[in-house]
Design a protein that fits this description.
Helix content of chain A: 40-55%
Number of domains of chain A: 3
Radius of gyration of chain A: 27 Å
CATH class of the largest domain in chain A: Alpha Beta
Order of helices and strands of chain A: HHHHEHEHEHEEHEHEHEHEHEHEE
Structural class of chain A: alpha/beta
CATH topology of the largest domain in chain A: Rossmann fold
Shape of chain A: elongated
Strand content of chain A: 15-25%
Largest interface: A-B, 52 and 52 residues
Oligomer: homodimer
CATH architecture of the largest domain in chain A: 3-Layer(aba) Sandwich
Number of helices of chain A: 13
Strand order of the largest sheet of chain A: 2-1-3-4-5-11
CATH superfamily of the largest domain in chain A: Response regulator
Number of strands of chain A: 12
Largest sheet of chain A: 6 strands, parallel
Chain lengths: 355, 355
DNA sequence: CCGAGTTGCTAAAACGTATTAGCATGACCA
DNA sequence: TGGTCATGCTAATACGTTTTAGCAACTCGG
């Protein structure tokens, strides 16, 4: 019934050698330590015959290293964002033989600290502190001193010796405006932000930087947005209201940049209710590339948040740091900006249609 | 720089007792083993003063138990399903001091086995085998014999001594039809399944059972569906096609049951293009309760998959089994069906509008 | 035939905890 | 005064590895 796991001692006994010998052979240090080829073969055969698998807990205790990393997020369940971020992290970890502990803090600092402790108790080799929306987040002090840590999708307010991985929102904003301009549009309405940084959802790096990128590209052309429509949350109902406001002031708008796909969904609904055709009458560009962007009619052209790539990069940076451990020529505190790819669908008129 | 962790030996030394004494006191076995109150106080003070936290890896090696469970899923990133399932699992685990290893297999059996091994190497106390869609899934033989295991959102083909947690799809189908009937509808079109079990996406328990529940409720009324529209995938584009087919045959349909929200999204689009109003002209009910159900206009009445409750229940069952370990009066092999709640929005006409 | 060097392996300790058996010490009873 | 018993603690071991120091046996040059 309870057939015990086979241990290194079992292998050694079966091979007729001491446990130390078996350990050396299986760690490929046989030649280095002058174990005869014959003995090595015996050990390997015994190991595979018995189906030996080293006990990772014991290795962890002995070596202090567990091939395990902790992934701590404020909110795991928010849309599919979480899924792809974790997927990327899992892929990168798996490819290097690491497992992931995953935990959620609900944004509570005490829970976050307790979770970090619980993971350190389990001797994780490193920690990723993720947020599901790009924002500022001050990690607890404990991560500065001991354990390798990477921030994912967030930045600390103060200067901290921690690497961070965030999407390149400024370039994304630039790209959105550029795509409209290249399509021949000059009169662009903005749904989701005001002209001032304060007109933007608080703590939202995405909002500030998308706006900044858009403004940069427009002003390079001598342009400014035709109208701004700030809103407290980027949700469909606010997108609807903003779109109504646009139409009240400009019954035949030409181009709309929505600050995310849910806002765009609301805008679509209103445009269609008013009999305006996308993209023939009005072009729409958005950000995020949620699943719905592909389901909407016409398909929404939008700039994707590279969740999967970010998850992967965070793990890769962390593993590099773990391997490194001594040589701190890594310049910790670096911010890694991951490109946000434009996903072209059908919501912007062809670039050669007119003008 | 590298200030070592404080160990039990440190605490013992600070308190002026042997490590064994400290261990007993901190395990609350002090009185049982006749440690004087004075000594107990000294130990506790030393522990809290030094900030002692037991090394879980060492405990794991010593006790064979790690307060850790493995959550293995075929696909972690599929919509927000994953998020809520994991959220529920995390909540239940956290409330009992357990951590979760999370891994993804991409549906590959070899990866699944390797992952189970990797987790057993780390001495997890139990394993949850999850799928992101309700379906049949044969877990590897290894889980039968040793480690406590719960199947989440899937059922084995053959009889296995494993508990499973699945949504109660039959009752959900019954509820969908019942809601339509109570609203006074008798002529109901089905988008997403054919009349035969074989007209349904293969392996999809949801399809078979939703259909079964619908048919049961209808036949209790002496009714049958007005039309069936099977499709290989429940995605918006197929929902559009099916809705067009309905209209070709019945230009003024009364009631539509869609087999999921994405199909309903496609149906909405076509209905709106044809100038038909929901719910005034046609009522729509669906399954899943994705986020989009709340974003669509009018809000979609839909029967939710209780992902969070399922995740929570899976962990709770697993922890019960882990605690139990000896007394196998648990009747393993039980299937736990979690109720699927109806989420009423605005896509079905009021029940007293007419009859 | 002796010392030095090489070859091939192993004993032992260590990681940090939990647990069992048992050792002093004093109290109490006969 | 000697034996028994309760009290209060600790030594020692085990969990399964990794790693270092070193032992035994053999070879070889002089």
């Amino acid at each position: 019934m309870a057939n015990k796991r086979v241990t290194l001692a079992d292998v050694a006994a079966a091979a007729g050698v001491a446990p130390a010998t078996a350990s050396l052979v299986l760690a490929d240090r046989g030649f280095e330590l002058r174990i005869s080829e014959a003995a090595q073969i015996k050990v390997r055969q015994a190991a595979s015959l018995l189906g030996y698998r080293p006990n990772a807990v014991s290795q962890g205790l002995r070596t202090g290293t567990t091939s395990t990393i902790g992934f701590i997020s404020d909110n795991i369940a928010t849309s599919q964002l979480a899924g792809n971020t974790i997927k990327g992290a899992l892929e990168a970890a798996r490819s290097q033989g690491f497992m992931l502990f995953i935990a959620e803090t609900d944004g509570d600092a005490a829970t976050e600290l307790a979770t970090i402790h619980a993971m350190m108790d389990r001797q994780v080799d490193g920690i990723i502190l993720a947020t599901m929306f790009t924002r500022y987040h001050e990690p607890p002090a404990i991560v500065d001193e001991g354990i390798p840590t990477i921030l994912l999708n967030n930045l600390p307010n103060s200067r901290r010796p921690l690497d961070a991985v965030v999407p390149d929102e400024i370039t994304a904003g630039w790209t959105a405006a550029d795509y409209m301009i290249e399509a021949g549009h000059q009169k662009i309405h903005l749904l989701g932000a005001g002209p001032l940084p304060s007109d933007v959802p608080p703590d939202s790096i995405a909002a500030v930087q998308r706006l900044q990128g858009i403004q940069e590209r427009l002003s390079a052309e001598g342009l400014v947005p035709l109208s701004y429509h700030p809103m407290p949350d980027w949700i469909p109902v606010n997108g609807r209201a903003a779109m109504e406001a646009v139409l009240a002031q400009d019954p035949f708008p030409e181009a709309i940049i929505c600050f995310n796909d849910r806002v765009a969904l609301g805008a679509y609904q209103v445009l269609q209710e008013h009999g305006l055709r996308i993209p023939d009458d009005v072009s729409v560009v958005s950000f995020d590339d949620f699943d719905i962007a592909g389901w909407m009619r016409p398909g929404l052209t939008t700039i994707a948040i590279p969740h999967r790539a970010m998850g992967r990069m965070a793990v890769e940076l962390l593993l590099a740091r773990i391997r490194d451990i001594g040589g701190s020529d890594q310049s910790p505190g670096a911010v890694h900006r991951v490109p946000m790819p434009l996903h072209v669908r059908e919501s912007v008129r062809g670039q050669n249609d007119d003008i």
